[in-house]
Design a protein that fits this description.
seven-stranded parallel beta sheet; globular; alpha/beta; about 200 residues; two-stranded antiparallel sheet; 7 helices
């Protein structure tokens, strides 16, 4: 109905990415098993490298499977361009987290990698790309992560109200500086949660 930005899902094929050895705990992939798969050096390289090409200069939120995974991904992004990425987790001091998210909001930091921190309640309408480096079997968790990028940009948010028709709202979003949000996913997980539009690479 034109309240949220349309989703484009990009599926990235990562050679050797195999979740078949991950046990299921409480209905989702076991955290320790998943961390082993996602923290493997070759997997890290094969996830970060295409992500850099895809995001360009767009503001990007990355969901990681563990604290170590978030830290290492940020480190790899920063090898590409020093200072482009930061990371947060539940143990990040409040003042440090606030500083990083402020820098992310202003564009001083382009990429924020996080582990179980920005899944819900985080609001930054400037997020244009969401990187799903945290595979999940949970549709609700997947939707929550996607939702962090689906807010319309600030410049038109105030114009989307009950007095506008759905087609008017969709048109305003389409003509804005953020006409879509791109969800970058990795095959194995993406096959489970199909979204509106998809592009395979």
């Amino acid at each position: 109905d034109g309240w949220l930005v349309p989703v484009v899902q990009r599926m990235v094929h990562v050679e050797g990415l195999d979740f078949s050895g991950c046990r299921t705990t409480a209905g989702d992939l076991n955290g320790a098993d998943l961390a082993k798969v996602m923290e493997y050096e070759a997997t890290l390289q094969r996830v970060v490298s295409p992500s850099i090409d895809i995001i360009g200069n767009r503001r990007t939120l990355v969901f990681a499977s563990s604290v170590n995974h978030a830290e290492r991904m940020a480190e790899m992004f920063n090898r590409h361009r020093p200072g482009m990425a930061g990371w947060v987790c539940g143990e990040t001091p409040a003042d440090e987290r606030a500083r990083l998210l402020r820098d992310f909001m202003t564009g001083a930091v382009q990429v924020v990698c996080n582990c179980n921190v920005l899944t819900e309640g985080f609001d930054n309408p400037g997020v244009e790309v969401v990187i799903m480096a945290r595979p999940t079997k949970s549709r609700s968790l997947y939707s929550q992560m996607c939702g962090r990028g689906m807010r319309p940009c600030d410049e038109i948010a105030h114009t989307l109200n009950d007095y506008t028709l759905p087609e008017q709202r969709r048109s305003l979003i389409a003509e804005s500086t953020k006409p879509i949000v791109e969800i970058v996913d990795y095959v194995g997980n993406s096959g489970q949660h199909k979204l509106m539009t998809s592009v395979d690479i």
